[in-house]
């Protein structure tokens, strides 16, 4: 069977798949026009976008005002906004309204940029078009065979394969360690926690040597096979960390989310990317890693500036309380 | 005299100063509506935006079609587009039409993304709103006093002060090495050349150890004091490189663009940034360096995602010939 080799831009495009408002085309359709805009109490800044189909299906409670004329959803002033979300999502789970809720509860995700802390369940965030946050840690070593001195060997990267039973991206390759940043947790604490849970890495090593190296942002148009709701507006932020380890450090699975870990050379990772074997957003984290480490350069990659811009899309929401 | 300490977002905002088309505000004025769009022969993709004042002042030749009704400027099919630009810009220099041309010729800059190679003079690029490209190399060392082992000392960065006689940003601090990427030259060759010319760095060291680490993109609204034309649309791409050197490597000026070099600690650089001492785009390169090296983290910087997105703005033009 012939398979088409994916370019890095193809891989980024699969993740950052929501259309841009292109100023070069004055006749473009505004891709935001279809949505209902989501507002928090006493805050004129939008925090999410909902599809009309989602608005129609949602078992709204009296804690939310739905305005069909102006296409807005506003959370009413209430004692705690988080409780209002919980109430609403409990209803949706009970009624089995949305397949992506999987009929179960998940971790609390904060609405970033909110002036008063508010959170909702992780699985529900894309229904509201609210920003989801993840943290990814890429673990690599240079100390292997073929090195010309300490820290100068050929780079190898620890790459896990996801378990077959996972809801999303079963059997795909992934970033060494990745997880959702839950409410009240910072990105660094998230990778420290996940590095132990997913890769059996020593907490002390991660705390001492994991380095914050940037963040990616993109907007997915959730239309991929396997997604239960089509056309959702799903903005995501991924905080990226690198961890260079000694050659004797080994990543190994310790929960049932990872099938096994491989120590892969750069060429092996490149081929796996081209074959589309990585989870969509983890492919982007790997491309960003390659760019930051000089593996992918502007001389070799004609789409270099476009890739960099698409990996760092400006989200149409405030990401801090005073923006 | 009281001085206001600048945040990292303030510094990025000073560079990426052209307004965004904000989808959250349906009543926003389209910031692109005022411009004339620039087209190359047989290519429907826009490559630049010109102010009406620039269009009115430009001594157009018959090689360009100016359409006031549709607000377009089109380079006519011609034997060589570069010659047509040269002809036009020669006219403008002779007539002293634009102050920013400084009455003199500069290096050829390519129109990136063009299907047939075409270049125009560096100083003229912002008049047409065409993408300018620069390459910046940050040279640093970790081998100094206070280290806990090889490669683990306190990070220090080589920072030059620009000469007082320069047209732009006289007396400001700057990236270790920076220059415009001229037509026919790659970003890496540009930094190799400039590293010798500006910082007396050994070509072999730069070729061996300078590492490509990404690119920044932004759109300046050229309105700063010292700019001779107001309100120009100036998109820029900066290719970034890092070079870690041994403690005995010294950067020293060898042309008249640099006054002197300092070896500055991270805290010193931070304070100089806060005081606004850096050239506008070099401040952004320094902030990106701090983010990639874990000096600025999401835990400490509330505007982290916004800064990352603004440093990697998607430009409204193709950056490769097949986009």
UniProtKB/TrEMBL annotation, chains A, B:
Gene3D superfamilies: Nucleoside Triphosphate Pyrophosphohydrolase (3.90.79.10). SUPFAM superfamilies: Nudix. It comes from the Eukaryota. It holds the Pfam family NUDIX. Coiled coil: none annotated. CDD domains: NUDIX_Tnr3_like (cd03676). Residues 140-286 form the Nudix hydrolase domain. GO terms for molecular function: 8-oxo-dGDP phosphatase activity. InterPro entries: NUDIX_hydrolase-like_dom_sf (IPR015797), NUDIX_hydrolase_dom (IPR000086). This is Nudix hydrolase domain-containing protein. The lineage of its organism: Eukaryota, Fungi, Dikarya, Ascomycota, Pezizomycotina.
